[in-house]
Amino acid sequence: MFSWFIELDHKVFLYLNRIHSPVCDQIMFWISSDTFWIPLYIVFLIIIIYRERPFNFIYTILFIVIAVTLSDQISVLIKNLVERPRPTYNFKFADIVHTVNNYRGGPFGFVSSHAANVFCVATFLAYQFKTYKWSLFLLFWATLVSYSRIYLGVHYPLDIICGAVLGALLGTQIFVFKVRTQVAINRRIQIRIEKKEEELKKKG
Asked: Which CATH class is domain 24-203?
């Protein structure tokens, strides 16, 4: 049963990987690059700072960094434990896999760190922004980046799906932890302010 599922994963990958063109090759290569999305990350940062003035944005940025770090490191750990070869390293069909700019990735591909990281950020920000339009955009962005990994021939669909699930779960849990932490810290600050006000009233 499991071998049948893996074979299906291979077939779906080969079908999707065959859909390519010279123009899309370079576009997908850019989409898969982290540096390509720096302007979008700057937009995210500006929105977070604007929406959470004066100081709450610090919590959000800090926990996004924690979330991405966890998703990246956990996905790498899973790769090294599972040791599933990428399509570009699969001796059965590595020679027919469509690649771009001779990019092959590392030897192991399960789970996809790209998928884990972008879905982690997308999920976290979807909860943070709380709007339908932003949620759709973030889902589209994460899906596009993840699909580019199949297009480039370095991940199977199962690598992407499991990476996306990992990222979404981590994004959700870290957001919940962020909210609870923020509420707890704000309560302590408020209690201290109230105590100082009471002390000043007594002295007055």
From this structure: mainly alpha
